[in-house]
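Each lists sequence, tokenised fold; shown next:
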Amino acid sequence: MAVNYSTEGYVVLQGVTTSGTFGTSGSTISWTGVTTGGDSDFNHNITDDDEDGLLDVGVDTFANPIFVFSGYTIESGGVDYPVFYYSTTNAYLVALPQNGTTQTLISAPGTSNVYQPEAPAYLCFAAGSRIATPECERVVEDLQIGDTILTSDGRSVHVKWIGCQTVSTRFGPAERLMPVRFAAGSLGEGLPHANLTVTADHGMLVDGVICHAGALVNGTTIARVPLDEMGETYTVYHIETEAHEIILANGAPAETFIDNVSRRVFDNFAEFEALYGDVPEMEELPYPRAMSARQVPGHLRNRLAVLLTA
């Protein structure tokens, strides 16, 4: 069953050209103008065919399903907006979370982000997640800048920043807003030692692979949390350290913030900007990453299946 994400508007890109070959690594698209459209009553959906929380090129669609995800996104205000393509008319639409007739998100002229076969989302812990420190475990919402936490290999590192984001479930894209809950023991070796809830794109280190939580969902021991359990709004948190690290959340190895997602998506971005200003790009840890279910290695899927039936 596919997941539908609601939209409130769209824009049409005009005068589109491609650097390199369309749909290939390293290429971008540029446009000379934007035609606004799709007022607040516009109710076409973005369809996520495999329910993994990622948009896949040529598979996931917009508008019934005429337009397919092109692999290009447009960064605006720290958020990447997907570009959808209809080859028959050579048309490009950008789906928006706001009234398309008055939109201010997509400017012209402009150039997209570099082509990627999947578009990422957010990576956060839910309130109540317990983070290992040298003294004890502490709930993530009580951590502060400067506090010391433990990495999975036993090192002490300092919290550089805690990013907070308020998620509204009232007007959002249904299942896309559902966090993922790992039941105690669902990852093996008794981990996590208590139920752990994270956003669908939070990376968990399992058998040497950073797997996004949504990619591991099996519907039972690892499942999406119904939004009626989350209330009208809920808050998620992400821990940033000086470098990309693997820390322990309810005993399970989980990644800290990595800046392939903009800090601007967090409610308190102004705090980070005031403290640190512009900072160099972070270096990601040298683990393979599985962002969708089909990228999870077979041996890992098999091991989790055994845990599911044990």
